[in-house]
């Protein structure tokens, strides 16, 4: 029995563990890789070892554990802890992955994750890694892509760095040939990330130890170079020569890597983690290129210069990931050189350096990036940034429990050698240490107490954290003393008091071991793996036999499994103890409650007789509640249908609004296109008119220039004619003077007339010639006048033609402008109409949406009301069941036969009688009262009238007083009374009436058989309303709640049958106003009724 019990507990524990593993797997499936890395990085080594122990123990439980290991293996810390705790896991996993294609597809990702980082020293590389690597590479050859080539790079960058050297020569040649094919393919040229992964594989295949000594590699590559700009050692592989074989190949490689970095820095093109690793590959690639060639590359061609200038803008864009930005800054600094870095690039690097805790969780990647970038940016770092960095280092060293100790330790370790070789950085650090800004931080750093192992318990969870803190403090002291000792005489020195204080603090540091307290005992493993035993020739050194190693591994696995089972059983036992402690106290409480309940049962048995009458009244009250529940359900159904109709109407309104809006938008777009075409047509017409106007202006200018030239020629002719006229006038005057002299000498020369006749005749000819000349001059003058007149006429015609042309074009422009304005106004009116239609559609949509928003609270209130009514109904059903059980117990105690049961809802539902209709009871939920709608059919019906109708069907109460025992009344035929249907949507308000209302026959049901000893039965007795009110005031706590209702708002009156057989078969006298309960007396403390 004990073994079966323990087995059951173990199975329950295993089921609980599986459930928790499924929950953890679902959480890790939704988490991002960076979140997992950060979470694991912030955990202590002891916690990581505990987690690795639990996960390795749960590996046989199911596939969920494999998903958990796959998600957590993105963290290098967890991966190392898992492999150290379970060394055989890697070999078993790779062996299973090599078994079949299905197993390879399932376990390939986890195998790549475990091999993506160097293995711990205690874990050798298994022999199954070789076929697994070749299988992954074959997949990359058949489908070259980022997803298939990235695993090759990560394994070569991790645990498989020396694996290629152990492969056969034929496999190495095939590997190199495949890389050359990928580099030469079009897919590599079109996919920048594929090109980067391929270049990274090429570099790691031939230079696997580049990452381990990057600083020494860079320093050696700067001193020893070949003519092609690569390090002195030549590249042996064809793929390496394809990248670095000549100067042109190197420039091409720089160009491709630079463009790929620009592509990775865009943001939304590739994931941030992939972009970070791709830029890091580009940085490693440029480390194999001479610095002079890197710096001279932007000047080789214009395209290189343009690309070089575009990268800083992409680095400094908003929203870029800080890790991508930091890697891109390192890459750009390698190309630009330490002396050509812009100030804004340096400022951004200072910002990233101040936020170094947000960069990486992988310490090796951070160390690599800092070792490349710090020597390049160090000479240009500003003094405020250095002060801020030193202040943060000193402050973090005073908080030993910080989760970023390893990050700052790497920063200090990488900064110390840079300080020794960079004079500007050293001078700024020494000046910062002497400034007043850092004095408080320095004093806090010097005054902080270092604690040893014996003080680790309270502030630390393990021993690694205090060791990191001690190493950080020691590294800071070493950095500061290095800066003081390597300073030149011209540089500022470290204050002597500070140097002495640092030396004293270094002496006070306690020695803290780096072995974690929760670390499991190390397992002795051989220094040579199985794969190395098969591939390495014997060196004569003694090696452990594989059988002994297999035996030790099996023993360690059984120890871990036994320890896990013991812990699980202990945890189960502890949970059982907790449950026992938790269960005992409620047991005592229940026992005390049972004793109290026994006393209460004895007291309640004394109250059975009084509760009998109240139970009967409650039965009637429950019947009324049943009817109200039915009406509430009907009302709920009507509300749900109304809600469905409202939702349908809302959907239809939304569709109509969307259609109207779509039509309005299409109309608006059509009108807009029409307006644009009209405007373009008018613009073309205006351009044509403007061109024609320019041509006319040119014609006018040409005419004016011709007129000016004619005017000038005319003036020249006038001047010439004036000169000629003046000459002729002088000649005429001279001739007239000579004529006068000749006339004067005529008398004296009369004698000589004969002699001079020939001379006179010649003179006459001369005078006639002169007269002809005068006539010619007069003709020229008249011609000149004609020319002047024609010139003036031409001027006037030109001016008139110009004015006519200007007037005509002005009229045409005015007409075109008026037409354009009219068309614009017409189009504007159409646009306003379209906007108005769109606005109306938007307003209709908004009105519909507001109406729906207004109806939502009503719908919610209706739903809440329905829920509350359901709750009330369920509670009343429970009360009904309690009352029924109580009635059966009372009847059993009173020895009353329970053949004639009171009517319940199930019997009513199965009874084929005409259903009785009750007026809906007013709900307890506060709702808005609607105004009453009185009808003529209900105004004449009162309580008294209904009482008379009921009294008419029973015998008088006086006749029952003469006899000792009332006789059973004969069965009478069924008669019908009027009942009114009240609409479920109407809720009229009437003045509140007394709680005690007359019960109509339709509300009564048959009672149980009465004892013949009951002498006090009152038949035909009715209590006035005034007495009812007095009795209502003295009602105790057992009274039923008010039954309020109204006859108002009835649409019609329907006759409802009342079964008298049920009353007469019970052999119980009835009163028309009040029902005789119990012994036949009127209950004094509680009355209940149902109002029609």
From TrEMBL:
Residues 587-752, 866-896 form a coiled coil. Keywords: Coiled coil. Residues 220-229 have a biased composition (Polar residues). The keyword Coiled coil applies. It comes from the Eukaryota. Residues 220-239, 901-939, 952-974, 1026-1045, 1070-1092 are annotated as: Disordered. The keyword Coiled coil applies. This is Uncharacterized protein.
